[in-house]
Structure formats: structure tokens, C-alpha cells
Amino acid sequence: SLADAREQGHAAHTMLRQGLDPLSVKRQEKHLLLTHHATSKSFKECAVEYMAAHLEKHRNIKHQKQWESTLGEYAYPLIGEIAVADIVTAHVLDVLRQPTTKAGVSGSLWQLKTETAKRLRGRLENILSYAEVAGYREGKNPASWKGHLETQLPSPSKIMNVVHHAAMDYRSCGLFVRELRQKTAISARALEFLILTAVRSGSVREATWSEIDFDQKLWIVPPEHTKANREHRVPLVEQSLQLLQSLPRALETQKIFPNSYGLALSDSTLSKLMREMLEKLPGLSGVPHGFRSSFRDWAAEQTSFSEEVRRVATMHRVGDAVQQAYQRSDLLERRRQLMAEWADFVSGCENK
Description:
Blueprint: H1 2-17, H2 22-39, H3 43-53, H4 61-79, H5 89-96, E1 99-102, E2 105-108, H6 109-112, H7 114-133, H8 156-159, H9 173-180, H10 186-197, H11 201-206, E3 212-213, E4 218-221, E5 232-235, H12 238-245, H13 267-279, H14 291-302, H15 307-313, H16 321-326, H17 332-348
């Protein structure tokens, strides 16, 4: 209104008489308002913003859901509504030491669910680092481990019981594969392909026909389908190629091993198939991921291939950073020989 305009004009003249620039004052007030808004952003708001900005890091929906579920279950109830600028070490410790139960035993999250708590701490650190760079907070990251939380919490390696995936004795793999080949389900072919290639379950289940090069006899696993987020070339030997060539190709999907909806098979589908088979094979045990260990044991005990070849075959890094910098070859042809021997072994050995 005219009255408001006169009032603002009068205020501006007053500032000028005091040697102040009205425009500079207005900009400063706006800056203070924005700063207040930024520093009043809650931890939950900042976490949601961080996850949206880093979707490319979440290689699949499962990974994204893990972030959402751990933060939702353990962090948001305690610190979700606190301004991210006010989060201090005590808040982080409250989250990591919160009471929980496991197998009927009560204790702290850090003590009883160490792997979950360790991942949660890393996620808190990432979110708080993001908040610092975004101008939402200042000071040392209260969730950092080195020289900070390591002084307050026992090392995860000291309290965490490492449970390795149950692996089938490699001498029993021939019997298992022979029984597996009696089944016609697509899940059986996926599990057989996993055994022949010694590749992780996720890479097999997500595999598409575009990744297969029949001419070069290669399966080129893209970074987004690997745990290490880097491309991996898998040599395809005779048994692997025959398996692929026997599969029908659905027009509505590119997945090699699709479920009934044309999507990737779930991890639980392969696990369920294996459990059902083991019930009919007394004395045998293991899980799908364990076949990688079966392969490594066989290669170490029954072949003369070097440790380098064996490690690269299961997509593990070889040597330290210096050695990795100089060794650029992925030892493909040596691995092709190794995988051919493994395929022959599981296709013809007897259970002993």
C-alpha cells in the first residue's frame, strides 16, 4: 500500500543518514534468513536429500531399501527431528548403543548387531559430511571413526562373529550338479550357471542377453551388476555356452534368467531351490554363494594354477595398489583354461 511504501522509504532514508546502504542491509537480512533455514534443517530432511543426490551409488533397489530401512529403524526415531547442525557425538553414540535384542539376548546395537551398526555408522558419517559441505552444519563430523568414535566403541573386528557362507565340499559338487540338471526350472539353470562360472548370485540373476558375446565366448558383466562396481569378463566354456543356447528367449525381457514377470530372479528363489535339493541329498550342505568357495578350494587343491589366476577368476583384487597399477591384464586365457577344467570336474566327478 501507499502507507507501506512511505514507511519503507522513510526507513531507507534513516539508514542512509546513518551511513548504511539499504540494499546491502536487505541482502544481509536475506542471507541470515537463508542461513537460519539451512541450519534448522532436520537430520531426516538432510538424509532424504543426501539419498536423492546419490541415487547412482545405490546400484539396485535392494541397496536403496537397506539405507532407508536402517535409518528408519535405528536413526530417525532418536535423531530424525533434531536439527542436523545440532547433532553431536552423544547423539551418534545414542544411536549406535541403543538397546536391542538378538536371539533372545538383550544388549546394545553395536554389540549384538555389529555389522548393521557398522554400516549405520558409515551412513551417518556420509550424511553429516554432506550436511557440512552443504552449509547445514560446522565442525568435526561426530560419526567419524578414525581418532573419534574408535576411542568410544570397541572395534567391530573384536566383537563381531564372522559367519562365512556355508560351502559344499567340492568333491560333492559333481553329484549336486548331476541332480540339478534333472530339473527344468529356470532357477535350476541359473544355479547351474552360477556354479559353472563361479560368479556371485546377483550378477547371474541380473544378467541380460546383451552381456553375452557368443563369438568371443565371453560374458561381460557390467559394473552395475558387480559388487566391486567394475566390469568383469567371464570366459564361457563349452558347458556354459550349451546351457545358454538351450534357454528360451522371452520377447518381453532381456533377462537371461527371468521370473514369471520377466524380472530378475530373487536371491531367495535360488536359496529355496537349493534347500529343497539338499533335503533329498543327505550329507550335503551349502548355500548358492558357497559354490565360489567350493571352486576356490578345488582350484587350490586340485590344480596348479597360480593364486593370481584363482583370485581374478572370483573377481578379487590381486596384490597391493602398486601391483594392481602395473598388472593390467585380467588373465583371461589362463582363466578360460581354469574354468574349462572346473566345468569338466563338476560335470563328471563322483560323490566321495
